[in-house]
Amino acid sequence: MKTTLIYSLAFVLAVSLAATGCRHKPVNVTPMTPGMTPPPPTEPMPPTLPSGPTISSGESVQAGGGPAAGAEEFEGMIEDRSALAAYTVHFAYDSSVIRKSEQANLQSVAQALAADPNTKLLVEGNCDERGTEEYNRSLGERRALAAREALAKQGVDPMRIRTESFGKDKPVDPGHDEAAWAKNRRDDFVLLHPKPGT
Amino acid sequence: MKNHLKICLLLLFAVFAANFGRSQDEITITHEITVLGNTKPVPVSLDGFSGEVADVLKFDLYVQGFSFVTPDVAQYQISGSNDGNVVGRVADKFARSTLLSRSYTGASLRRQAHAFADDIVFAITGKKGIGQTKIAFKAQPTGNGSGEIYVSDFDGHNPQAVTGDHAIVSKPSWVPGRLALYYNSYKLENPDIFYSDLSTGQRRVVARYGGSNFSPAASPDGSKLAMILSKDGSPDVYVSNADGSNLKRLTTGVEDSSPCWSPDGQWVCFATKINGRRLLAKAPAGGGAVQVIHTAGAPNPTEPDWSPDGKWIAFTSQTSEFDVCVAPADGSAPPTVLVRGESPSWSPNSRTLIFNHSVGYLQTLSVLDVFTKQVKDVGRIAGSDSEPAWRKDLNL
Question: Which of B16, B125, B263, B327 is the most buried (most CB within 10 A)?
């Protein structure tokens, strides 16, 4: 009986020592490897790239005036930023609805496109600084698509229209008040002329 | 004999209980950890370190839920020196035992200090620390317009520019298992999605469809890419293979943004808008019905990021300000509003978030321990720093 108890105690002591025993161990040495080497400079991109494969989603989408023309359809076109600068469309906070007050501007854009069938249109959607970055990128795109949809309703072929969102990265007014924000919530229209020789 | 065994076991238990009397406190702490933003920090003392090593240890431990006190009231006493190399020791005061005794050689003192911090965290919590992890982010000299993608240590040190395009860039996303990133760049006169291999410097365009291409997010196994495309007339979530092939449309919402993945790769979570209301939702990665994620109490949620352990979804709530919030992924409890800020990204161990918040009109990166709410800025790196992405691989 006694001996068993002594053995038990010895065992217990051994176990507990093993559990806390690193007390008198020599210091461990951890050799460090150098950190991540600096990435080599990124390759310059070729001037033009093949666009991604065209894949039909098989779904009919009404929003935005239907599927977009591939980016290659607009490659090399000459941007005229002044021709339609007077017709910038503005939006309410966090909204992509084109207000009645903006309809006249859209009509002017539609007329300019009708006047020269060789031209195309770039719609740049923009936001004020108050949303999160990626949210604003989607909101800006929705604003550009809202103009594309409205122009399509006025008879403009949506395949002539390219949309691009700048989120909050391209404010016209650097201010931080409602006056500045109201100016920044906008669609800018850029007339695209065919590249020379086509 | 049976009695002997019983006595033996009892004694064994008694000795263990005495020996590890304080480990019961640890158990309490572990339990409290699930209380977001309300957990008490673990009090430690820090002696014998100086300069950069002391700074690194303080930063790393503070943003992982430790507080600094004098040795007499510390639960753990951390001591050592940094004369040439870092030598460190961690003693558990209550258990009267040494948890860790180690020295470090090679690389820089800074790296040695991060490694010691990781060993401290592991010795005390049993979890891998974040001291040697990496982040990617975007940096804009003026707060909007063109900028560059950067990678750095998680604390903002050793920043390295990945791009040099002077173009608008956004939303870097690490590719798990590789030293590579996806990001959005306007370099080719259109918002396109790039894949960049950081070990070779080679990059290629993986999405350049008509309309905008942005918000890339690599799947947890690196085999898939989620992103926002507007090629079909609406900004929606699409999923492709890692190289951009096999593209599939996942959502048909009016206005979807910022996709992220569940850690098992089964779900893609994103921000959406239904009847003018902003919500978080998730869709099966292979396609299927969209489900709304419960975030009531945190208005206008965007920028979700699912924790690697699967339990939490961090996101940004917008009122008159931006707030970093965390909600249980299963919707079992309302979200917790943690601190002012936006664009949160989880650490590999699912305990810490990196995010950005405004200082004046520029953004600064900041690291947050979600359980204690202890938070520290990493300091300005390259103007306005935002959209941080924490690299989830620990051993690469």
Answer: B327
pLDDT at B15: 42
The predicted-structure confidence for A40-89, as pLDDT tens digits, reads as follows 666 554 433 333 322 223 333 345 678 999 888 998 999 999 999 999 99
For all residues of chain B together, what is the average pLDDT?
91
List the 97-126 stretch of A: residues with Cβ below 8 A of B: none
Q: Which residues contact A116 (CB under 8 A, 6 or more apart)?
A: none
Q: What CATH number does the domain containing B94 carry?
A: 3.40.50
Counted domains in chain B:
2
In sequence order, the 6+-apart residues with CB closer than 8 A to the CB of B341 are B316, B322, B323, B324, B355, B356, B357, B366, B368
| CB-based contact A22 B112, cutoff 8 Å | no
- Check whether residue B181 and residue B301 sit in a common domain: yes
A78: CB partners within 8 A, 6+ apart: A192, A193, A194, A195, A196
Q: What three-state secondary structure class fits A78?
A: strand
Query: Which pLDDT tens digit goes with each residue over B191-234?
Result: 999 999 999 999 999 999 999 999 999 999 999 999 999 999 99
Residue B166 covered by a domain: yes
Same domain, B165 and B290: yes
Q: Domains in chain A and their CATH numbers?
A: 82-193 (3.30.1330.60)
pTM of the complete model: 0.85
**Domain carrying residue B74:** 2-125
Closest partner CB to B208 (pick from A4, A11, A49): A49
Using the Cβ of B257 and the Cβ atoms of chain A, whether some distance falls under 8 Å is answered with yes
Token reading at B127: 């979890």
Which of A32, A40, A169 shows the shortest C-beta gap to B145?
A169
Within-domain flag for B49: yes
Residue A70 in contact with partner chain B when CB distance is under 8 A: yes
In a domain, B174, yes or no: yes
Residue B100 confidence class, pLDDT cut points 50, 70, 90: very high
Q: Are residues B94 and B159 in the same domain?
A: no
- Check if B156 contacts A (Cβ < 8 Å): no
| Domain assignment present for B105 | yes
Q: Are residues B245 and B278 in the same domain?
A: yes
